[in-house]
């Protein structure tokens, strides 16, 4: 291989966050000065984001889907009038009521659905096997994927809020406390969703079956967690099941940030319970982290 070819190959590997497997005698970077796992993972974020936006199906079903669903719900149900939690309470438009749920669904889609299908596909088509033959560690790989979810999640939320305020005339909160609630629920929700997506990617046996395995799980969670249906109108047993999963708590936290306080009476225990929102998301974050680290393999054991 010529010097030019070697240089080009090294450059491509560097852009993907893959360190060289060796160095010529007397040259290169000494081992002590090699970048750490977090540094290597950070360099992969740009590569992962570019790959994400080059996949039309991922962009449509995870990035644009909440925006489209908000438009459908706003157009379909606005004629029925505003939603009011009780006599004398402040009312909001249909679009304003469903906006928090769509924000929560966006986090779930960007993390769980996107990563579970993406990683299962990479394992199936041999991408993970090739990466496993390099010095790239699972931690660096995780950092790249989680960073991609954060970048796309922020862009998706910004687009959703922009569309809601400009096209549908939905009034956004003006209180700093509301935006602080939005910020911490968003960060915890995205991190939890990303780790659960990595964990769930071990379930499909192939990239071809990943969509059939993952999408029904995500879709059911959206219906029972107050995204597409008003949570207080669901049967109690269904609310109890939804409370076992993180999406219900993400949607509840987002409603606390975007809806008037009068709407707290529509929650399961007639309160926003933000402390329990934080606890539930932290528990699921730890669960996702542990399962991801225990089950992640460059190659399936049963392959």
TrEMBL record:
Pfam families: ABC2_membrane_3 (PF12698)
Chief location bin: membrane
Renumbered residue ranges of the record's region Disordered: 1-38
Coiled-coil annotated spans: none
Location in or out of the cell: Membrane
Keywords: Antibiotic resistance, Membrane, Transmembrane, Transmembrane helix
Domain spans labelled ABC transmembrane type-2: 57-302
Superkingdom to which the source organism belongs: Bacteria
Composition bias, Low complexity: 1-11, 19-31
Bilayer topology term: Multi-pass membrane protein
Transmembrane residue ranges: 58-77, 97-120, 149-170, 182-203, 210-231, 274-296
Protein name per UniProt: ABC transporter permease
Organism: Agromyces tropicus
């Amino acid at each position: 291989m010529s010097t030019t070819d070697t240089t080009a190959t090294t450059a491509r590997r560097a852009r993907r966050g893959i360190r060289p497997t060796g160095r010529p005698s007397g040259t290169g970077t000494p081992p002590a000065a090699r970048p750490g796992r977090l540094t290597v993972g950070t360099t992969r974020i740009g590569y992962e984001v570019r790959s994400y936006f080059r996949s039309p199906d991922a962009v449509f079903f995870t990035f644009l889907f909440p925006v489209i669903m908000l438009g459908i719900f706003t157009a379909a149900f606005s004629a029925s009038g505003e939603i009011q939690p009780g006599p004398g309470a402040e009312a909001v438009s249909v679009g304003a009521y469903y906006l928090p749920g769509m924000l929560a669904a966006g986090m779930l889609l960007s993390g769980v659905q996107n990563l579970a299908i993406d990683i299962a596909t990479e394992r199936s088509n041999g991408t993970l096997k090739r990466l496993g033959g390099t010095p790239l560690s699972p931690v660096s790989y995780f950092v790249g994927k989680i960073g991609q979810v954060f970048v796309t999640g922020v862009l998706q939320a910004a687009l959703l809020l922009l569309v809601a305020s400009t096209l549908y005339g939905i009034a956004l909160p003006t209180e700093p406390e509301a935006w602080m609630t939005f910020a911490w629920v968003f960060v915890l929700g995205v991190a939890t969703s990303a780790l659960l997506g990595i964990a769930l990617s071990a379930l499909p046996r192939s990239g071809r079956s990943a969509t059939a395995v993952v999408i029904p799980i995500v879709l059911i969670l959206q219906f029972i967690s107050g995204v597409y249906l008003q949570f207080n109108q669901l049967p109690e047993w269904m609310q109890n099941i939804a409370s076992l999963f993180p999406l219900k708590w993400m949607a509840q936290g987002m409603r606390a940030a975007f809806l008037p306080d009068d709407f707290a009476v529509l929650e399961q225990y007639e309160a926003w319970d933000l402390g329990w929102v934080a606890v539930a998301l932290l528990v699921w974050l730890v669960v996702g982290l542990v399962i991801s680290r225990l089950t992640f393999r460059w190659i399936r054991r049963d392959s």
